[in-house]
Structures are given as C-alpha cells and as structure tokens.
Design goal:
Strand order of the largest sheet: 5-4-3-6-7
Shape: elongated
Helix content: 40-55%
Distance between the termini: 98 Å
Radius of gyration: 31 Å
Largest sheet: 5 strands, mixed
Number of strands: 7
Order of helices and strands: HHHHHEEHHHEEEHEHEHHHHHHHHH
Number of helices: 19
Length: 509
C-alpha cells in the first residue's frame, strides 16, 4: 500500500469517526428529549460536578475570571421559610355555598313529644353536583295601549339572543367554548358526554356552527385586545405549528398560530397557513415602532430589516441556555462554566422581580452587574470558537455558533428596563394549544384557524387575569347583542376583571 493510499484511508477513518461521534451526540440528545427529565434547572451541586471534571475550560478560554469568582454561590433572592399556619386550617373552602341537611333519629320521628333537643353534632363534607341541562322558557307578554288597539304591539326584546331562531343560550355556548379551548375536549367528545350523561343530543356539526358564531361575536373584543397589546411598543412573539384539514383531499397541511403579547399582560393569537416572514406584515401593523423579542428564527430578523430602523429585535437567553444544556454531555466542564454564568444572570433577574424593581432600576442594575457577566461570557465564547476545539456540527459547536450569532440581540435587554431576559412568558402562553392539539389532532379547515385564534386569545387572557372563563363568556354573550362597538373596550378581560374587583370592594365596604 502506498503512502498516498494510507493517508487517504486515515483521512477517511478520521472522517467516519467524527461523523460517528456527531451521530452519537444527536442520538443521545434525542433519547434525553424523549425519555429524560424535561426540566433544565441546575442546582449548585450539579454545576460543581460539571466544573470538577478533568477537562478544564481555561485552555480554550483563557483566565477570564478567578476560579473563586466562578465557583462562588450566585446571589440568590432571600426566601423566608414557610410559616406553619396558626390554628386549624379549614378543611373545606369557605367560599362554597352551604346546603344544610338535618337528619333526625328514627325514634324522635316516631314520638317527637317525648324528646327534648339538647345540642347538635355538625359534620361538613365536600359534595359535587354534575352540570345539568335545562329548558329556559322565556315568556314575553305583548301589550297595546287601551286607546290604540290597532297599534303595533309592544314586546320586550329577547335577552341574550345571539342568532335568530337559535336555541343556544349564552350559558350553553360558554360551556362548549370553555370545554374545547380551556379543557381541551374536542366536539365529538362533548357530543358523547352530553348524550351519555344527560340524554341531550347535540351533533358536533351544530356545535361547530355555534363555535363559529361565538368567534364572530367575540371578534371586536379580539381586535381591541390586539390594539392594546401593540400600543406598548414592546412585544414578545413566537409561533407554533398546528395541522389543518385541506378540503377535498383528505389530507392535513401545516399551519401556524403566531402568538404575541406583553409580559404579564394581554396576549394575542394569530392564524396563518405558513411560517414565512411575510406573515408578520399581517400581524405587526406598518405604524408599529418598538421592540420584538423572539427566538433565533431568521424570519423575525428579515422582517425587522424590511421595516428599516423602526423595529429592534431582542433575543432570548433561554434558547441559548437550552443548547448548552443539551451539549453538557459532550464537554461537561465547558458547558458547566457557561451555564454557571447564565445562572448568575438569572439570579439577578430573580432578585429584580422579587423587589418589584421598575424599568429604570432594572436598567441600572443590569448595566452594573449583568453587563460584566455578558462581556466575560462573550470573550469565552469567542475564544472557544477561534480555538476550533469543537466541530461546528457537534452539539457544543452548534451551541457556540448559535450564541455568537444571536449576541447582538441578547444585549438589547441590558439597555431597556422594560424587556425580559428571555421569551419564556410567551412560550408559556402557547402551552395550552399544545395540549389541545394532542386531543383534537387538527383544525377542520384553514378558515377555522382564525376562529381558534380568536377563542384561544379570549381564554388565555382570562387565565392571565385570574378570571373564570365560563363566567366571563356567559356575561359577555348576554350583553353583546345590545352593545355598540364603542362599548367593546369595557368588556375586554382586562376591563371585566377591573369591574369585578370594584364590585367586590364595594360589597366589602
């Protein structure tokens, strides 16, 4: 064998070894994702274990900080130990209605005149009555004036009438919507439940028409929420895939629910049949100026460039952290050091939330504390990249490339106290849709996606405001037929929750 052939074989062997290593890393990551623990939390002991491996990050990073500083305990918000409640904690919630039942002994029933009551034993138990259907008969008398017998009769309008000659009431419509979009019960399951438990036959086709009617009635509220979200100038945004049925083909196609909102405030779902950057033109109006916070999906950057300098893209530290967490098996010490720096950043944010710091204070503390950590982390990542220590296609190499590619957007939150360090709050808003689509699998058609977006928006905003969605929807469906468009702003979940608090305070006073 010639030297040239031997060199080619060695080169091929090295290539196959590298490919085998990359495939093993991807397989391990897939197995952990399917069967491993989903939480990415790392406590102090886990980080120290990673940092104490034989491999040290200093060779590639240089000595950016003293070991004592890296291994020091990150600042943690002080948490008071839970206090044991004084006295006996009530076993049953006090707000529940009470139904009193008096049980007399049989001898007393037989001869009550022979017995004298000297006391009582009171026992409380938790009971439940299943929901029930009823026939609501509305009688509207007709009147005419005694001296105008030929005039048109006077009759009161039908309350809560959503559609002419429609038998559904606001209460039943609210129940169907909440069951599907809050409790994730598909219409075919509701059909079976109502028939088997109540002997009421409600075909799923009829309920689907009612759901569409509900979305049409709620569309003005949806638009008002959208206006309120976009006027703040800071929006978090993300998207999730949902399959929909293509009529006439019997196949499903992939659509997307784009979700955007203000942290700890309202959120909006928007339906599109694609994930292209052009979809953002239908979501973000042309006069919007401010900050969009998102993950590393390139469509957001392309959209921002198309709008000039009116839109700033802020990155998500959680997505960067997640990639290093997945790569920690490849290089425990390097991943442990990087995750440790990120843990310092999140400890600062936790303390700011605990003290309810305002935007100005958040910006000042981030500038004095977080920026120093970000600079140290950036220098380490650049050294790791230029040292070619990790293959670009490896888990660690991909994590380093992703972090450096997003770095300019990751720094944006340091200069704006309104911004969050990551996009997790908007991802949390998407989670209910993930549970729902596991049950109903796909949306009936593309047009139904818009209706789902409207109803998911209403339900999620009720959840964020601590509102019972059934009570809210029943009240809104009752009031909407007699309201004007100018009054819609008074029945958004935000306004409705404020009204309910006022009513409670007035009742207490």
């Amino acid at each position: 064998m010639s030297d040239a052939q031997e060199a080619r074989l060695l080169e091929e062997l090295n290539r196959l070894r590298q490919e085998n290593e990359l495939l093993r890393q991807k397989l391990d990551a897939l197995v952990r994702r399917l069967f491993g623990v989903k939480s990415e939390q790392l406590d102090k002991n886990q980080l120290l274990l990673l940092l104490q491996e034989a491999e040290t990050p200093g060779a590639a990073m240089g000595k950016e900080s003293a070991p004592e500083a890296d291994l020091a305990e990150p600042p943690r918000p002080s948490k008071a130990s839970p206090q044991k409640p004084k006295g006996r904690t009530p076993r049953l919630p006090e707000h529940l209605p009470v139904i009193e039942e008096i049980v007399e002994p049989e001898p007393v029933k037989a001869a009550p005149q022979e017995w004298r009551r000297i006391g009582e034993e009171v026992s409380e138990r938790l009971d439940y009555e299943p929901a029930r259907f009823l026939r609501r008969r509305v009688v509207r008398p007709k009147y005419v004036k005694r001296d105008e017998l030929d005039a048109v009769p006077l009759i009161a309008p039908l309350p809560g009438c959503l559609l002419e000659r429609c038998v559904v009431t606001p209460g039943l419509l609210a129940q169907i919507v909440v069951s599907k979009y809050c409790h994730h019960l598909p219409l075919y399951r509701q059909e079976a439940i109502y028939w088997s438990q109540n002997q009421v036959w409600l075909p799923r086709q009829t309920m689907a028409e009612w759901v569409g009617m509900a979305a049409d009635w709620l569309k003005p509220i949806y638009r008002q929420i959208r206006e309120d979200v976009l006027e703040d100038g800071y929006v978090q945004i993300d998207e999730t895939p949902i399959r929909y049925l293509e009529p006439g083909h019997g196949k499903t196609k992939l659509g997307y629910l784009w979700t955007y909102g203000v942290p700890k405030a309202d959120v909006v779902f928007h339906w599109e049949t694609s994930r292209a950057a052009a979809c953002l033109d239908n979501i973000i109006p042309g006069d919007f100026s401010g900050t969009l916070q998102s993950d590393g999906y390139q469509a957001y950057r392309s959209f921002a460039r198309s709008r000039g300098e009116t839109i700033v893209i802020a990155g998500c530290m959680a997505h960067v952290r997640r990639k290093f967490y997945e790569a920690k098996e490849q290089s425990p010490s390097v991943a442990g050091w990087i995750l440790r720096q990120m843990q310092h950043l999140y400890a600062i944010e936790s303390k700011l939330r605990e003290t309810r710091a305002g935007p100005n204070l958040r910006e000042a503390i981030r500038g004095s504390q977080s920026r120093m950590i970000m600079n140290r982390l950036n220098r380490a990542l650049v050294r790791l990249k230029t040292s070619h220590r990790f293959l670009p296609r490896s888990m660690m190499g991909a994590a380093i490339d992703y972090a450096l590619g997003q770095w300019s957007t990751l720094l944006v939150y340091l200069d704006d106290g309104r911004l969050e360090i990551d996009n997790n709050l908007i991802e949390n808003a998407i989670r209910p849709t993930a549970i729902g689509k596991k049950n109903w699998l796909f949306i009936g058609e593309a047009a139904a996606g818009e209706r789902s977006a409207i109803l998911y928006t209403i339900i999620e905003n009720c959840r964020r405001r601590g509102i019972d969605p059934f009570r809210y929807l029943k009240d809104v469906f009752t009031r909407l037929p007699s309201m004007t468009n100018w009054q819609v702003k008074d029945i958004t979940p935000k306004a409705w929750a404020s009204q309910q608090r006022t009513v409670v305070l007035q009742a207490v006073a």
